[in-house]
Every structure is written in C-alpha cells, then in structure tokens.
Fold these 2 entries.
Entry 1:
Amino acid sequence: MLYVIGLGLGDERDITLRGLEAVKKCDKVYMEAYTSLLSFGLSSNGLSTLEDLYGKPITIADREMVEEGADIFLSEARHSNVAFLVVGDPFGATTHTDLVVRAKKEGIQVIAIHNASVMNAVGVCGLQLYRYGETVSIPFFTDTWRPDSFYEKIQRNRSLELHTLCLLDIRVKEPSLESLCRGKKIYEPPKYMTIPTAIEQLLEVEQMRRESAYSPDTACVGFARLGSEDQMIVAGSMRELLEIDFGAPLHCLVIAGKTHPVEEEMLDFYSLKNNFAE
Amino acid sequence: MLYVIGLGLGDERDITLRGLEAVKKCDKVYMEAYTSLLSFGLSSNGLSTLEDLYGKPITIADREMVEEGADIFLSEARHSNVAFLVVGDPFGATTHTDLVVRAKKEGIQVIAIHNASVMNAVGVCGLQLYRYGETVSIPFFTDTWRPDSFYEKIQRNRSLELHTLCLLDIRVKEPSLESLCRGKKIYEPPKYMTIPTAIEQLLEVEQMRRESAYSPDTACVGFARLGSEDQMIVAGSMRELLEIDFGAPLHCLVIAGKTHPVEEEMLDFYSLKNNFAE
C-alpha cells in the first residue's frame, strides 16, 4: 500500500489526523525534497521535528530519486505500507502523479490524503478562488533563455477579468553547467524566485511586448511563506511590491483581475498602509 | 481572537494538528452548517464525533446565523478565543470572507487554518490543477429560472483547452415558497445536485445554444464524497456518467479540456471499465 500524504503548507503541525495515523502505520517513510527542506525543520544531519512527531526515520527523496529510483519504494509498497510525504497537497506537482500512475499500473493500492496547497490557500487574501483563470509559472530568466509564455495567459485572464496565480521558480539540486561539461554532477545551491524578481521579469516582458496585459500599476498580492505562522501577505501595485523585502522563501504572486467590493475590502487589510502600520 | 479553521473534506480526522490545537484553546466553537451536516456525524440531537474529539460542545451556525447573527460571535471573539469551523478550506465560500472582513474591521485578530478544499482535491483524478480555467456553478433549474451563464465560461475554457470544475448546487434551509406566502418560514428539505442532474442541465443548454461548447461525448470526471473513505471517482463521457448512480452527496463534476498523456494515464484508472472491474 502506498500512502501519498499531503503535509500542508506551514510546519509539522499541518498534517491531518488522518495523515498522521497513516504515517504511523507505515514501515517506511519517504519525503519529497523538492520544497520540503524549507519549512519542515529537516536537515540532512540531525533528527527533524517530523521524525520526532512520527517516531520513525524519514528518507529524503529528491527529484532524481522520485523520477529515477521509484522502483525501490514501489517494490517496498508491494509488500508493506509505505508513506510518501508531499508538501501541500499530493497532486500539486506532476512528479507525484507519475509516481501514482506507476504504482497503480503495478497493482499497488494507492491512498491519497489531501491537505491545503498554494492553489487554494491563496484564497486567504480575499480574491475569490472561483474567479481565477489558468495558473502560470514564472521561470528564472537567464542570459540566453527568457521564455515568456506566461504573458499571453495573464493577458487572457485579465481580459476575462480573472485573477492569475503565478507560481515562482524553484531550482533545487540543479547540476551546474560547468560541472556537467566536466562530466561530474556538482549541484548549484538551491534558488527560489522572490516576488520582486518575478515582477521585474513580468515588467521586462511587458516592455518588450507592449500589449498592456498589465502595467506597474496593476494590483497584485504577494505571498511569502503562505500558511506558516510568519506568513507575509501584501497587496499593492507591481511598482509597490517591487520595493518590498518579503524575506525567506517560498514566494508566490497573484495578479488581480477585476475585483468585487468584498474582495476589495479584504485586500485592503493587506495593503501597504495596513501591513506596515501594525 | 477568531480562528477560522478548515476541517478538510472527509470526516473528523481530516482536521490538522494545528487546527485541533486551536479548537482546544477556544472557549466557544461554532460550525457552519451549510455543508457540514453531511459528513461530520453531526445531528441536531446527540453528541457528534466532532464534539467527542474536541471535548467541548459545538454550536451549529446556519447560513442565516452567519449572515445575520454574526454580532454574537464577533462580540465573543473580542474577549475570548472563538473557533469557526468550516468544511474544506476557510476561504472556499464568500460567506466566510464576509465574516472575516467584519471581524477585522472591528479590530479582532483572525487566524485562518487551511485545509484541503474541493478546489485542490479534484487534482486526485490526474487532471493537472494549473490547467483549469474559471470555475463554474451549476444552479438547480426551476420551471421559471434557468440561468446558464456557466455555458460561456465552459465554452471559453474548452476553447483554451482548459479543464472546468463545476460546483453543483446545494440548497440547505431554503424557506419554501408556499411558506413564505403564508408569512411563516418553513424550510424545504436539503437538496444536493447530483452529477446526472448537472449533466442533464448542461446538455439541455447545449441543445438550446448549439454552439458545441461540449457534447454528450465530452470527457468528464464525476466525483462523489471527494476526500472521504467511500469517495467515488468515475471518468467517462457525459453520456456515460449520466447513467451512473454516484450515491450520497456531495457531488462535483470536471469537464476535461485537452488532456496530456500523463493526465490520460491517470484518468484511465478511473474509467468506467476499471471502476467497476474492482
């Protein structure tokens, strides 16, 4: 049996009772490392708060292991209970869908235990979830690679008066280009896109395209560490948010479409003036 | 302090550890009744499983109470810790946003504790969450009231190759027309739209409009009791799902846009042939 268990967004206390019960039944516990090392008190050496809570060791499964080494834990799951822990909800990322497909194909029973994800927790800012269009991803621009397919999607959402959730790039365990050339993988330090970087890139693309999908005056909401006790949520124009230090990752950004009165009242609590008056 | 706590989708074990801690700190516990009476073992007489878990009584707050009688629990929240429990995630419904806005305006500190909602849990079927367009609501048609604004939204999503989540109508504590005429409120029994009813209405509108937003052959996924142990998920065409008895509420429906190979592999596990072979 393979349990795919969402841990939610904050820390070890965001697991559900159902999720915790399942972990306790499992013989082996894996945890995806893609985003998890951030908030869950896990480090490569030393017991984590999660391990204390579960009373058993956790094996960190990085992306390579999930994609290439899945055979190991699938064969374990055939004969025993295996937990695969995922930050947020289990089905936020394609990687986990792949794993579930493989397990099911091999006749392994899979039980998913849901939790909050960024996709629904952004509702906290007051912009109604049913008024979002397609979600976009903003990748880190490099000197030679500046993909901007997000532009049309934002443009379309805004022309339909819909809000847009922008997921910001995370680069964990990327082999450095230099090391690849030398034939030996050395990994870059992890890199998480900040809200100001995302906005810089967004505005750069707008300046190139000049189709007024958005502007420095467009209303946005920046979220850092959403769901944690020290989460930071600020509503303001792109120009305003560009100047704000949101602190530690993860960050994400919502570009507002047309807002309704209740949405505006709620956003107001997160506006610059109210945020920094407290 | 007002804690707005998401309970998740299944039963009492879907609360998070953080949510349970908060409930235990509260002097007064309210629970929205809009959808909650279904799955959480609550009845008007008799102790519920939730009350057993929390070790304290729960006051059911129906829609009227939340909208009209909010003064009571806001005044309590000024001087003590009050929990307001919500099925799913706290910000799934506008009603709760209203309540939070009112509390914040009165200077009451509000803490939201997130959980899974239908909006992200539908990810379990394999259709990727970032490929959904705007969410639509399908209201019960009556003889005189057949609003079909969902049609253009579905049409638009499908022309963009995006999936559409359809939330199906829930009518709880609606005064009967007859009783209103007599000047005394008598409530209709609760009514929950089933997947076949939703599809009938969808096809009726398509027959009227004839703009091919979708057809009886369009691929869909029906979800009943999503997140519960007895959840039922079936992928099939509208024509196929029309014939299926999904059992007890709540139901929701996803109309697929263009599907990718990984999405198709996953959907296949939920197809009619695989669903009823088990």
Entry 2:
Amino acid sequence: MRNQIASALSDFFFEYETPRQVLVRNRRVGVVCRLIQLGVLVYIIGWVFIYEKGYQSTDTAVSSVFTKMKGVGYTNVSGKETVWDVADYVFPSQGDPSFVVMTNYIITEGQEMGKCPELSGKHSCTSNNDCIGGSFKRTGNGQMTGVCVKTTNTCEVLGWCPVEDDRTIPNPPLLMSAENYTLFIKNSVTFPLFGVTRSNLVEGIDANYISKCLYHPTKAPLCPIFRLGDIVELSGFSFEKLAREGGAIGIVVDWTCNLDVHEKHCKPEYNFHGLYGNPGDPDSTSASIGYNFRYAKHYMENNVAKRTLLKVFGIRFDIIVQSLARQFDIIPTLTAIGSGVGIFGVATVVCDLVLLYLLPKREFYKNMKFKYTDTQTQDPDSEAGSTETEKGSGSKQACVRAL
Amino acid sequence: MRNQIASALSDFFFEYETPRQVLVRNRRVGVVCRLIQLGVLVYIIGWVFIYEKGYQSTDTAVSSVFTKMKGVGYTNVSGKETVWDVADYVFPSQGDPSFVVMTNYIITEGQEMGKCPELSGKHSCTSNNDCIGGSFKRTGNGQMTGVCVKTTNTCEVLGWCPVEDDRTIPNPPLLMSAENYTLFIKNSVTFPLFGVTRSNLVEGIDANYISKCLYHPTKAPLCPIFRLGDIVELSGFSFEKLAREGGAIGIVVDWTCNLDVHEKHCKPEYNFHGLYGNPGDPDSTSASIGYNFRYAKHYMENNVAKRTLLKVFGIRFDIIVQSLARQFDIIPTLTAIGSGVGIFGVATVVCDLVLLYLLPKREFYKNMKFKYTDTQTQDPDSEAGSTETEKGSGSKQACVRAL
Amino acid sequence: MRNQIASALSDFFFEYETPRQVLVRNRRVGVVCRLIQLGVLVYIIGWVFIYEKGYQSTDTAVSSVFTKMKGVGYTNVSGKETVWDVADYVFPSQGDPSFVVMTNYIITEGQEMGKCPELSGKHSCTSNNDCIGGSFKRTGNGQMTGVCVKTTNTCEVLGWCPVEDDRTIPNPPLLMSAENYTLFIKNSVTFPLFGVTRSNLVEGIDANYISKCLYHPTKAPLCPIFRLGDIVELSGFSFEKLAREGGAIGIVVDWTCNLDVHEKHCKPEYNFHGLYGNPGDPDSTSASIGYNFRYAKHYMENNVAKRTLLKVFGIRFDIIVQSLARQFDIIPTLTAIGSGVGIFGVATVVCDLVLLYLLPKREFYKNMKFKYTDTQTQDPDSEAGSTETEKGSGSKQACVRAL
C-alpha cells in the first residue's frame, strides 16, 4: 500500500502532461490566427498593461483641507464708508474647505420683534380674509396677525420689523473689491493602502516662496495662493455677474499619482469650474441661479433685543479633493495576465471555428483534430484498447481513424 | 542565416496550432459535461454580464451640496411672543450639507462673568472640602472657588452666572412649527472617470416647477424641496419626540447611474434614515440619545460683557451623497471573458476527473486521452521517432500505444 | 431537416471533448513543471485567497460624524479672570466633524470704524508717497488714506480701529487648561453594498460605560471619549507647543471590517496624527506652521457699531472616517479562480518551452506533441483521410508521422 502511494506520488512528480497539438500548415488559417493572437497580445500588453496600467492597484485618499483668506474690502453706501476684513466677509470664519466670501449684501439694521406689514408686491391682500391670523406663508417673514394693511395692501405679520426689502439687488455689487482677495489652500492627502502622505506644500514650496507667489495655471501651477478674480475667470464666469447674485465655484485639487516613481512627483493640480450650471450653458439659469443666505447679528439696545439682518450674496467655494494613486501590485498584474491567457483561449476557439467550419478542407482538419470513440459499437469487455484496434481489420485503417 | 530566420518566421506565420481532442461519445459524460459547461456559461452571461453588469467599469462621484431652509417659527413663552426666522434657527447659516434646525431650546439670558453656585442636584457638596478651589469638574460650569454654598448644597464656581438650568427640557418642544419648514437641496455630482456632471435639478425641474412642488416619494420624487415633517416621518421617527430632545437624520441622495443609456436617465433618489439608532430598535436609546449643543450670543450692556446662552436641541440633517456610475469598458469586459474562459477550463478539469476516475471504462478513456513516453526504455540515439516505432515490433501495437 | 438538427443536438449533448495529452515521463521536466504549478497554486490559494482575501468584494462606507466637547477653561490676563465654556471655545459650536478648539488668542476689544495707523514694524513708510490713497495692501488692515503717520512710520488706514497687535503670541498659551477638555465622538457608518450600518457606540458601549470611561489605546480602545491632551500626545506633538501657535490633528476612525464573521466584530480603531507635517520631521516647519483665524463679535455701544476681534490660535481636529468592509462574493471568487487557471496556462507554456527547446531530447518531444499537416503535398480530392494515409507507403511510416 505504501509502495503504491509512493509510486503514485513519484508518477505525479516525475510526469508532465502537455496537450498534443496539430500544426496546421495552411496560409489562410495561419495568417488569420496569428493576426487574432497578435491583436490579443497587443491589447493585453499595449492597452491593459501600458496604457491602463493594469499592473497597478489603485487607492483614493483621505484628505484634510483648510483655507485662509486675506484681503480687505471697502464699501461706500450713501456716504457711509465701511471696511470689511476677513472676520466680516468669510463664512464660516475658521477656515473650512467649503466657505462663502460675501460679495454683495442687503442690510436691514435695527430689526426688533413687533408687528409690521409685509413688503408691498409680495403677499398682497385685499381684505383681512386674505390674511389668516396665526398662520404662516412659506416665503413670508412672520406669523400673520389677520390684518390686511391698507397702505401696502399686504398682510401684517408678527416678526422682526421692519421686514427686509430685498426687491433690488445692489448693482454693481458692493464688494467688487473681493476680486483682489487671496485664498490660501492647505491640503494634506493620505493614501492608506500605500502609506503615503502628501501635502500641497510640496518640495520647493516653502514659506519664502509662498510669501511672494500667486497661482497661475502655467507660470506658478503649484503656488497655493489664489486671487479670487483669477479663480472665477479660470472657471469661465464673469466676476461682476457672479458677485452680484452669488454663485458656487468648485476648486478641484487633483492628486493623480503614480507611486512607482518617487513620491516627490506626486503633485496636485488645481482646476476650477462652476457648480450648478456652466457659464455658456443656456440651461444654467433655468433653475435657482445665485447663492445667498441670511445672517443676523444680535445685540441689545436699551434692553431691547435687536438684530442686524444681512442677506449675504456671495461666492461659495468648495475645495474638492480628487485623488487616485497607483502602485505596482502583484495581484492585478497576475489577474491581468491570467485573464489575458483566457482571452488567448477565445482566440483559439475563433480560429478553430474558422478551421473546422469555414475552410474547404474542414473535414480533413476535423479528422486531424478529433479522435472519435465509438463506444456504442465497442466490445464491452475491452477496456485497455481502443475501438479500432479491437476491430483490428488492418493497421492502416486503424491509424487513419486514430488520427 | 537570413534564410533560416525568414523560413522560421514564415513557418510561424503560416502555421497554426490547435489542440487535438478526443470526442468521447458517452451519454453520461456528455450530459454531465454539457450541463457543467452550460452552468458556467449561464453564470458568465447571466450573472456576471447581465445581472452584475461585469462589462462596465464603475466610478464614484465628487459632489457638492448646498441647502436652503425656508419657513418661520413662532414661540410663546410666558406671554413673550417671538418669531424665529431662518437667520435664527439654522446652524450654520450659510447652507452647508450638514446643518442643524433648532426645534427646542433652553435660554439663559444676561449671563455675566462672576461667582455663583452650581445647580442644586448636580455637583452637590456638604462642606468646602468637597469643592477644591481652582479645579474643574468635567461637567461643571466653571472653576471652583472652594466654597460650598449652603442654600443649594453645591460648589460655588467662577464662570458665566447665573448657570444654565437644563434640568427640564421644554415639552412639547417650543418650535413644533419647525415641522412645516421646507428644505431645498442643490446637489451637483461629477463622475471624473466618465466626465459626466449632473445636478439634482434634472431635466424638467425648472424654476417654475420648484416654486410649486413639494417632495413626495411617489408623486414628486424629483422635487428638491422637502418638508421637515415629511423627512422625519419618512425616516420612521415621530417629529415631536425628535424635536424635543434632538436627533440626527441622514438624507441620502443616491446617484446610481447606468451611463450606457443617455445621461438624462441618471436621476437622484432620496432616502431618509435615522443616524445613530433606528426608531424601532430597542438598543437605539441605550447610549447618548438626543442632539444638542450650546450657542452664545455676546453683547455689551453698560460696559459689561454679557451673553445669552442657548442650549439648542435640534435635528441635525446630514446630506449624504452616495454615487455609483457604470459605463461599458473594454477592460472589465475582457477580464470577465478571460476569467470566464478560465472557469471553463475548470469545468473541463472536473469532467476529465469524472471521465478518468469515475466511469467504468476509465482505462479506455485514459488510453484515448494520454500518450505515454517511456523515455527510460528508449534508445538514446533516436530523436526523430517515438519509442514505439523504434521498437517497431508491429504496426498494430505501435498504433495502439500511440493512441 | 428536423432530423438533422435533432441529430446535431444529440451529438452535441452526448459528446464530450477533452484535449489529448502527452504524459512525458522525464524527471527533470516533471519536477520543474510540478514546482512551477505548485508555485502558482500556492500563490492563488495562499496569497490571493487567504492573504489578500480575493474571494471577497469590498466596499467603503458613507459616514456621519458628530462631536461634543466638554470642559471649562480659565484665563487670568492682568488680573481679569475669565472662564471659557464650550459655547466660547469651540468653532463652530454645532458639533461638526471638523472643528477648532481655541487654545490661545489675541483679543482686540472695542474696535470701531475709523482711521488709524498700521502697526509699527509692518507696512512702514517714510512719506505720504508710500501710502497710495484708496488702495489696499494684501496683508494690511484697511484702505490706505494716503497719509504716512510720523509717530509710527506707517500708513494710515481706514478700517476697524485700533488695529490688532499680533506681533507677540502669548506664551505660555492662555488656555493651557484645554488639555483637560474631553471630546466625545459619535460616528455612524453604512456600507451600502452590504446593507450594514454600524455605530462607534458598539455592543457594550452603553450610557453607563460612557459616563465613566476615557479613551486609552490599550485599556479602553473603544471608549469614544478622548482627553485633548491624550490625543495630542498620541499624535506625537507637545501640547504646549501646539496650543501656542495652533495646529491640525487628524483623528482617523478606521473601520476595517470582515463581514464574513458576525458584524459585532466590526469595531472602530482610533488613530491620531498630525496633519501638515510630522513632529519629528525637520521639513514640517518649513512652510506655514500654526493654525489661526480671526473671529469678531459685533455689538452696539451708544449707537456705534463696535466689535471685539479675536485672533484665535487653536487646534483643529478633523475626524476622518476611513472604511473598508469585505464580504464573500461569488464574482471576485470566480474571477480569481478563472484568472488563476489562466496563470496555470502560463505555467504550461513555460514548461512546454523547456520541453521543446531546452531538453536534449526536444526533437523527440516535439514529435510526440505535434502532428503536422502537409497540405501542400496533399491530394486535393481527399478530404476524409490524412495526408499520410493518402500516401499510404506503409503503415509504419504513417503511424510515425501521425504521432
């Protein structure tokens, strides 16, 4: 018994199986098949490996962004000069990757809780019946008291009075000077799969360079300081138009890295595009243009709670980090090779179909390729020999069939 | 030499190799193998290709979201009527994808820096020894002065006085009217791999439609305006319960797109679910229910810095964008085909095992399939002929062995 | 006709094709090939399946995070005692995953709109010509009036006056007590592909445990309450140094889950690391150290709009959720098997090359493996027989060639 196993094992280890093949010497089939195989080979090596880098595995990054604005704005509304600094025009103030820079506003000062009519033109009424006391209108400014005010023909509401008058948006935008503000972006990305951490302050971008540089797509593509006017222009919008009614700009920091080369070549690229509609697109203004929000500063005056309401029109900047790192990995490599071999198998099947069904000499090739076992006509006792040899009518015929 | 290479090349190009095969005419093996092969084929075509769309590559989106609330709230606390508008009840105000709508609050007005005892019931003490001067308690309101106040039996602290009394949460919630607020979601997604950008204001969702519509799961599934009460209800919670103590709701904008059809079919789906515990789940209240935070409005009164402290209970909404786009790609297609061919190979191996080890006529098939080279017994000079022909004892035997 | 189709179908179903193979009994080739095949097998089973878990598909999570700080800070600046609670030192207040804890500040109280010179040392001038009226300097505090103030040798600006003096950063940091603040993290992750939702309040982390526990890397690795001092220390920084000038710490919540086991084993791991530069790295201070932002509290005093400006130095915490769940999936399993079979095919090709080109008896094996069709010399009328049998010069020769 042990001998048997040992012999089976030695058989297994000292033997090698390889498929028997027919070498068809036919120009048409040869050329067709070699071309198909060459195509598959070019596809696997050229496309999968070289072009699509199929020998690499990929990873996206976890990232952290913070931002800092610099610059001072100035407004002169009916002789009242005001200077706006970063604590006043950035929302929120703590340097989030998504923030709003105020470029225009409608200010309503000294609001206090009380009763006043809605703006004329909106929520108009003809009699008290149009103003159901205690109810709200979705776009109203307070709770209706049930009174229709004759002078404005609008419902009276309980709320912060006087109500905001946002019927006219200042034009040109009050804070056109926002164009010259600068934005500093600090971005760190980590590719957990490869254990690589990179910052957008790459090699060569030191404190000295940052203090002087300004981003330019070709001249200073790695400078992390951006002029707002440049950003808006690069995204294809007109700053004045965007500043007037507000809008949203995406700043894409693109980390597409091949980590098979030294990681110092892994550098960010900055792209800018409008979110929600492109500048040239006629549909872009079809729905919900502009960007604004309301913001209140509360204070006490003579023991009365008051607030200053700002309807802020601004440019919302979203720093979007997009990342894709690639590095050589044995598994995708071998998977690509393995499935490439499989596709070679498909090529063989296609060639066989040509050989066996399309060529004039297909019957001949069929006989070359296949050996038939006619077990139906076979002597059931015979196990060791083939049908033909059992019939044994002549060695020549046996060989013919055997092929 | 050149001729030799040319001849080798022409041999290579005009020749074609195809494996020789045995066609076994055996019903059992035939049926078993065809069924196995059919199974593999059904798996590859039916499952990998049709069901799992294995011919497509996938991509997730980078996205940008902003939100806008509308609606007015009203509270009447001990006769004091207050109206709350969007500048007062949304945190933060600038329309972030993650924000809080205040639904209940505990207000502590007129706090100023000073010394006062902690709330009775919390941080109780019996003597000054229980209140170590200059130290802090983790949940305390200030720095202990080292005095135990007799009237309240609590430590005296230096801090904003009077301390907040949050022992009773208003019930019903003060801002139940929040149920009728509406939320407008603007979401833009970009699939960088496919260069496709979509907005949730899809074709047909124009300014006119938005001004009138309200989201409904079946009647208006694409309307980007949501009533808060509906959102909470669709996520399975009771609005009043959530409004009282606060909670967190995830609004999932699901972009599952097949970009092989026109991109106009790439539309968002909105889903709503509670974060941190489900409504029906008994475990959900086991740890840290509710959602609240403290917020202060600072002001000066008679040259004294004061503040109004709000403990805000609210519903936190997280807009979560989930995206998966698919598009035909040659590489996953050929990888799937290639590995499918590989699995076909496995099927062949299985059938061979059946054929060679399980069938009664296995020896016969073994002889059909394999040709043995007994090189040990072979004349070492012979290179061109096979063992059998060298022995040449008879053509019949030669053929038998050769098969 | 119908019979023909039926017969073709029955032929197809009752037949089975299997490749014919040569069993080479050669120790060298056998051992080499078996070793190659064994290597491939070990790679596929050991590496792809067991080590890299290639039988599983993967998914990343959509997640939601909120945070809550607890603790009280105390400052004593020139005898003025102030207590800072969570409403004062956290920005923003509503519990975002990315927030700033103030640890140091420069306060400028009572600013109002007016004209005043810039700080001496910055923006210095020698004559009015250095101060172009109506223009701005990028790092200036307002709009230049065109006057060079003699006393400070700096340009006069219109802006919030007096201007902030941030030339000296308080040392030691004013709010060193921030070290003892605690941070509570609530995190929920959903793996959409597998339909699994998990919270960092896993089984066993109930309200009772939370009320007492404090995170420790080994003793309490699942406690979601963190002491700021511990976080900073675990990320390798000195708290005092970071607190003075500010910095950014990433708190990575790592969900690496094998969902083939019960989902209760899917637990978070917390890691801490500095963003933008590591503590020991000499380059880390090369560009833009520290983290600060400006924040203003506006108020009215005697009908004059004033503000208190805070330059906030703080530690920015980014809660970064990193997730990777794996679960058995039939498609990657079969793809791995399929491409593994393909690689087996490569092994066979390599062995064949050895067999056919390197062995001394290569010609013999070539004859064993290949059958040649010399169609050029063949009688064109013959379709059923092979070349050799047509020539029919002798059965021995026929068999030789046929092999």
